Amino acid sequence: MNEQEKVDLLSRVNIFESLPKEEIRELLRDLLRQNAEINLGKGEVFYTPEQPDGKLFILIQGRVRIYKMEGSREFTLEVVGAGTIFGEVAFTSHRLRDAYAEAAEPSILLAVERADVERLIRQKPQVGIRMINLLSERLHYYETRIEDVTLKEVPARLASLILLLIESEGVRSRGEIRIPTSYTHQYLGTMIGANREAVTRAFGRLQDEGAVQIRRRIIHVNDVEALERAAGRPLDEEGENLP
């Protein structure tokens, strides 16, 4: 990816949208002079809770998985794609600071030091306002993900996750919505706090209800309303679905 392509990508990152492209170009060049560009291999963990100062990351290419550890189990909070900014939670005292970040595939990102972020906010207050909005949205999203795992049974968690995947990467085609990324049941399990066998059973239930189909390891959504109903079922005190 050449400089102009990176500038074009950064101009679409929500906190930089209000900046002229020439200012974005200067920001990019400053970051590159500081060796802020990081190349990652698949599976490489590049952020952990042991890095207390925190950095703001801008994903230029690839995909990154953000996850927490619950005991010995991983819980995936989010999988982000190119053009996404993340790591802003590290600038707060929020409990979600203890997250990890791992390259889900070979990736390139820019790592912006805390001091540089603070200087940019002082110089460009509109960036700070957009970052506050982003932080609020991201915290709400993470809290919702955690509530899903705490309050819902596995089929409802899986249905909620598929709805999120529709928003982030769904492709409409011939009366259905396809999730183009091939996710293993084990990987999806880390995203909803369940083991592989429970995910397989949950898919069977969603397929029986006509909400989804799995063809060649790709999720096809046949009925979004059925998926929404499956995702929204509250539990009674015994953990059973309410009517």
Notes on the protein architecture:
The protein has 243 residues and is α+β, with helices and mostly antiparallel strands. It folds into two domains: 3-150, Jelly Rolls (Sandwich); 153-231, Orthogonal Bundle (Arc Repressor Mutant, subunit A), CATH 1.10.10.10. Helix content is 43%, strand content 24%. The protein is built from eight helices and twelve strands. The chain has helices spanning 3-11, 21-33, 114-123, 125-151, 154-169, 185-192, 196-208, 224-231; strands at 37-40, 45-47, 55-61, 63-70, 73-81, 85-86, 100-103, 107-113, 171-173, 176-179, 212-215, 218-221. Strands 1-8-3-6 form a four-stranded antiparallel beta sheet. Strands 2-7-4-5 form a four-stranded antiparallel beta sheet. A four-stranded antiparallel beta sheet has the order 9-10-12-11. Strand 9 (171-173) and strand 10 form a beta hairpin. Helix 3 packs across helix 4 (125-151) and helix 6 (185-192) crosses helix 7. It is globular and about 55 Å long.
